[in-house]
C-alpha cells in the first residue's frame, strides 16, 4: 500500500487544510532564509562586524541546508513523517528564537545554522507529503500549491520583513517568523493525518538509489536549471538601474512583476506537469533560456525589459513542480531522502549561479553580459535533461525500467 492510498479517504476540506498549513510553513521558512539580505546594514551596525562578515548569515545558512538536509533526513530513518515534520519545525523555531534574542553576532550565526539544518529536511518532507495528499492525477498542482509559499516569501515575505526590521529593529522579523512557525506547528500537529514513511527501503537501499548515475543526473538538471535563474536574477537590480535606467523605487515594482510571473508560472507548471511532465520541463527550461538571452537586449528598453522580466519569472518557476515530480518519480523507496537532496540541489544551484554571475561582472564581459551567460548555464540544464531522457528510453528498450517515469509523463 502506498502513502497516497492511505490518504484516499481524507475529506477535501481536511486535505486542503493540511496543504495550506504546509504552504504556511514553506512561506515562513522561505522568508527566514531571505531575511538577512535586506537587513545586513542594521545587523552589522548593532553587532559591530563588517558587512562581508554579516553576509555569512546568508552563506552559512545555505551551507547548512546543502549539507545538513540529506544527512539529517537519512538519520531520521523510518520515523513517521508527521513526527519528523513536527520535530524539525520545532528545531527551526528554536533557531529563530535564538536569532531573535541573540546578544552577539556569534549567537545570531548559531541560530541561523540551527534553523538551516531543519530547512532541507522540512522542505523535502513537505514536497513528498504534498504529493501524497493530492488526489490522483493532481500531484503537480498539490506540489505547486505548497511551492507557492516560497514564491510569496520572495515577493512579499522578505520585503515585508525588511520593512519591519528597518522600523522596529532587525530582531522583530525573526520574532514574527517564530510565532508564525509556531502557529503552523500547532496546526500540523492537529490537522495533519498520520503520515508513515515510505516502506520497504533500508537506508543502504535508499543510498543506492540516490547514488545511481541517472538519479544524480536529475539533480544536476536542478542545479543548472535553477543556477541559470540565479546567475541572472541575483544581479537584476544593478542591471535595471545601470543599464535600463530605472530608479531604485521602480526596480522594486519590477521585482513585483517578476514575482507575479513566478506565481503564475508555478501554478501553470504544476497543472501542466500532471498531464505531460517531460514536455513541461523542457518547455520551461527552453523558455527560461530564451527569456534571459533576450533580456540581454531588452534590458536597454524599459518597456521591453518589464515584459522580459515577467516572462522570465513565469519560466523560472514553471520548472520547479516538474523538477520535484521528476525526482520523486525516480526515487523509488527513497522518496524523502531524494526530495531533501533535491532541495539541497536547488540551494547549490542558487549559490553556483550567483557565483558565476559575480565572475562575469568582474571579468572583461561586465554587467551587460550576465543575462546571456545565465542563459548558457540553463542550456547546460537542457542538455542534461536530453541526456536523461535518452538514458530512460534506452533502459526501457533494454527492459530494465527500475524507476521509470510514470506513463503519463512519457
UniProtKB/TrEMBL annotation:
Family matches, as Pfam families: MFS_1 (PF07690)
CC per GO annotation: plasma membrane
Entry's localization field: Cell membrane
Highest taxon above the source species: Bacteria
Keywords: Cell membrane, Membrane, Transmembrane, Transmembrane helix, Transport
Parts of the chain that traverse the membrane: 58-77, 84-103, 109-130, 142-164, 170-189, 215-237, 243-265, 277-297, 303-328, 340-361, 367-390
Protein name: Major facilitator superfamily (MFS) profile domain-containing protein
Record organism: Paenibacillus ihbetae
Amino acid at each position: 500500500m502506498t502513502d497516497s492510498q492511505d490518504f484516499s479517504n481524507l475529506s477535501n476540506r481536511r486535505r486542503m487544510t493540511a496543504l495550506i498549513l504546509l504552504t504556511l510553513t514553506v512561506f515562513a521558512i522561505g522568508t527566514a532564509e531571505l531575511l538577512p539580505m535586506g537587513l545586513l546594514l542594521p545587523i552589522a551596525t548593532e553587532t559591530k562586524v563588517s558587512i562581508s562578515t554579516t553576509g555569512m548569515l546568508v552563506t552559512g545558512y545555505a551551507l547548512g541546508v546543502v549539507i545538513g538536509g540529506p544527512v539529517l533526513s537519512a538519520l531520521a530513518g523510518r520515523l513517521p513523517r508527521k513526527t519528523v515534520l513536527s520535530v524539525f519545525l520545532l528545531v527551526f523555531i528554536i533557531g529563530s528564537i535564538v536569532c531573535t534574542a541573540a546578544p552577539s553576532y556569534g549567537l545570531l550565526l548559531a541560530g541561523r545554522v540551527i534553523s538551516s539544518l531543519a530547512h532541507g529536511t522540512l522542505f523535502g518532507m513537505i514536497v513528498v507529503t504534498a504529493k501524497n495528499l493530492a488526489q490522483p492525477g493532481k500531484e503537480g498542482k498539490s506540489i505547486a500549491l505548497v511551492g507557492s509559499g516560497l514564491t510569496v516569501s520572495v515577493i512579499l515575505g522578505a520585503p515585508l520583513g525588511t520593512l519591519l526590521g528597518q522600523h522596529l529593529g532587525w530582531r522583530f522579523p525573526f520574532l514574527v517568523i517564530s510565532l508564525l512557525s509556531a502557529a503552523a506547528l500547532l496546526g500540523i500537529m492537529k490537522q495533519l493525518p498520520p503520515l508513515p514513511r515510505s516502506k520497504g527501503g533500508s537506508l543502504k537501499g535508499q543510498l543506492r538509489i540516490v547514488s545511481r548515475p541517472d538519479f544524480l543526473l536529475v539533480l544536476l538538471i536542478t542545479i543548472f536549471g535553477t543556477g541559470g535563474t540565479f546567475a541572472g536574477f541575483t544581479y537584476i537590480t544593478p542591471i535595471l538601474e545601470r543599464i535600463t535606467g530605472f530608479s531604485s523605487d521602480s526596480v522594486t515594482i519590477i521585482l513585483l512583476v517578476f514575482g507575479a510571473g513566478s506565481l503564475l508560472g508555478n501554478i501553470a507548471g504544476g497543472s501542466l506537469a500532471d498531464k505531460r511532465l517531460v514536455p513541461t520541463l523542457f518547455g520551461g527550461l527552453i523558455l527560461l533560456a530564451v527569456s534571459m538571452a533576450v533580456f540581454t537586449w531588452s534590458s536597454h528598453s524599459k518597456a521591453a525589459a518589464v515584459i522580459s522580466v515577467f516572462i522570465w519569472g513565469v519560466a523560472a518557476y514553471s520548472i520547479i513542480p516538474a523538477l520535484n515530480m521528476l525526482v520523486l518519480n525516480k526515487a523509488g523507496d527513497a522518496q524523502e531522502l531524494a526530495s531533501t537532496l533535491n532541495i539541497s540541489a536547488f540551494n547549490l544551484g542558487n549559490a553556483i549561479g550567483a557565483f558565476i554571475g559575480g565572475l562575469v561582472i568582474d571579468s572583461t564581459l561586465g554587467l551587460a553580459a550576465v543575462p546571456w551567460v545565465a542563459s548558457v548555464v540553463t542550456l547546460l540544464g537542457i542538455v542534461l535533461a536530453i541526456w536523461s531522457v535518452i538514458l530512460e528510453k534506452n533502459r526501457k528498450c533494454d527492459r530494465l525500467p527500475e524507476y521509470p517515469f510514470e506513463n503519463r509523463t512519457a
